[in-house]
Design a protein that fits this description.
This protein has 253 residues and is an alpha/beta fold. The protein has 2 domains: 163 residues, Rossmann fold, CATH 3.40.50.1000; 78 residues, Orthogonal Bundle (DNA polymerase, domain 1). 40% of the residues lie in helices and 11% in strands. It has 9 helices and 7 strands; from the N terminus they run E-H-H-H-H-H-E-H-E-H-E-H-E-E-E-H. The chain has a 7-stranded mixed beta sheet, with helices on both faces. Strand 4, helix 8 and strand 5 form a beta-alpha-beta unit. The longest helix is centred in the middle third of the chain and has 21 residues.
């Protein structure tokens, strides 16, 4: 059996519960700043999360519902790029303001990975500036081998391209790596890359089919903070609401 050598984290919904009160808020502020009279509510944004990538979500909305004004086809790509750049700046401000705290257990598990000498990476479709804002701010004490973000790959999750790239950069085999994900698209991408998968749910993904994950829990958990509930897998783990690296290494190894 393989020995675990690396842990890869998704960002949005895993490291920070960013979708509802981060990205959605930033998108809506952007629509307002660009003069459009519509906003994405919580329920509708859940539908949009099935489309991977922020620029892709805006294009999907434009195609299916429109922006309320006529936009020439040749202007769409440039407009979406400008809007997404603005949205990213708004989102980074939200992160730097401290309004979006880390999810329970994230920094603890990352420190355990660092202390064990394992490789630690981030694999996210979130914009690179947003990912770096998290890494250089809330996670500045953590050592990452790489941060793969944004348009570094052509195909977004559920395509496994970003995880295949992580495997290439790490030099490890899939069964030597654990990925922490939260969404169906992320879990499908990790499964297609044949990785070991821990899924942590949030308000948007709790009702999604994450059954392709090996372990499903509500949160990674902290000893002195919020504890998790185990919903799938982890049969051999002495579980007390906190998933520890040594437990995951034994489970997957």
């Amino acid at each position: 059996m393989a020995k675990i050598k690396a842990v890869f984290f998704d960002q949005d919904g895993v490291i920070i519960d960013t979708e509802r009160d981060g990205h959605r808020v930033a998108f809506n502020q952007t629509f307002k700043d660009f003069g459009y009279d519509f906003a994405w509510d919580v329920e509708y944004y859940h539908e949009l999360l099935q489309v991977a990538g922020g620029k892709e979500r805006m294009k999907h909305h434009l195609k299916t519902k429109g922006f309320g004004v006529e936009i020439a086809p040749e202007e769409i790509d440039d407009l979406i790029k400008k809007m997404h750049k603005h949205k990213t700046a708004v989102f980074v401000e939200l992160i730097e303001s401290g309004k979006l705290p880390l999810r329970p257990g994230v920094k603890r598990l990352m420190k355990e990975v660092n202390d064990a000498g394992l490789l630690l990476g981030i694999c996210t479709t979130s914009n690179e500036k947003a990912a770096q804002a998290v890494v250089n701010g809330l996670l500045k004490e953590i050592k990452f081998e790489f941060v793969l973000a944004g348009d570094i790959v052509e195909n977004k999750k559920p395509d496994p391209e970003i995880y295949n790239l992580a495997l290439t950069k790490s030099g490890f085999a899939p069964d030597e790596c654990i990925v922490i994900e939260d969404s169906r698209n992320g879990v499908l991408a990790a499964r297609a890359a044949e990785l070991n998968i821990v899924a942590t749910t949030n308000i948007y993904t709790a009702s999604e089919d994450l059954s392709d994950a090996n372990i499903i829990t509500t949160t990674l958990g902290d000893v002195d903070d919020e504890k998790g509930e185990l919903n799938q897998g982890g049969e051999s783990i002495d579980y007390d609401g906190v998933l520890r690296l040594e437990q995951l290494m034994a489970y997957f190894g």
